[in-house]
Amino acid sequence: MKAVSKIYQSPEAALDGLLFDGMSIMSGGFGLSGNPESLIPVVRASGVKGLTVISNNAGADGFGLWMLLETRQIAKMISSYVGENKLFEQQYLSGELELELNPQGTLAERIRAGGAGIPAFYTPTGVGTVVAEGKPTAEFDGRTYVMERWLRADVSIVKAWKADPEGNLMFRKTARNFNPVMATAGKVTVVEVEEIFEAGTFDADCIHTPGIYVDRIVKCTINEKRIEKLTVRERESA
């Protein structure tokens, strides 16, 4: 029997049949690096609402997950950084948007645990702060730790640099921060990729995410690579 291809012809086709109201979505990226910028507009156009979105941040003004905030499709964000986004701030302070704030390393580990099938773990990060409120704590070797639960999602949308038809992925630089762990923690993982290579092209030692975690692949239609915050200084005289 011929294997079903993982490669889809458009972002719309890649997300077809996966989106529904009230679902959870993991969205890769770190700042504006590695955002699934071809797939987010498809989520917006679908009109699904009441979303719980798990992402390091919520984009920046006019870009990334900001697009879903603008249309009020996100009900809850599970994030670690919410700066550089005035719309996020407005919706949170007005009570429109629920926020579950995580230390950045804790967020990454919760996602990794979800992909590894580990329902909970203990960390010292956040003990004695608002982060630990309402969570179980325990003492190990004389130090207090707070229990954190795994994170999983109905769909993970991920951006990679290179893929082959089997879904083996390679990421580039900062885009590797959250995308690889999110690829493991979605019930369905959809990857937009800059380049698709023939099977057998990749050296196995260079693969960051094995294809077993990837369900659908589509070539990017948007690759803007924006700068989130441009900082410059005058050139010193020779």
From TrEMBL:
> Has the keyword Transferase been applied to this entry?
yes
| Pfam families for this protein | CoA_trans (PF01144)
Q: Name one GO molecular function term.
A: transferase activity
Keywords (alphabetical) are: Transferase
Instruction: Tell me which stretches of the chain form a coiled coil.
Output: none
The record, for SMART domains, names: CoA_trans (SM00882)
PANTHER family given in the database record: ACETATE COA-TRANSFERASE SUBUNIT ALPHA (PTHR13707:SF60), KETOACID-COENZYME A TRANSFERASE (PTHR13707)
| Name this protein carries in UniProt | CoA transferase subunit A
What is the taxonomic lineage of the source species? Bacteria, Pseudomonadati, Pseudomonadota, Alphaproteobacteria, Sphingomonadales
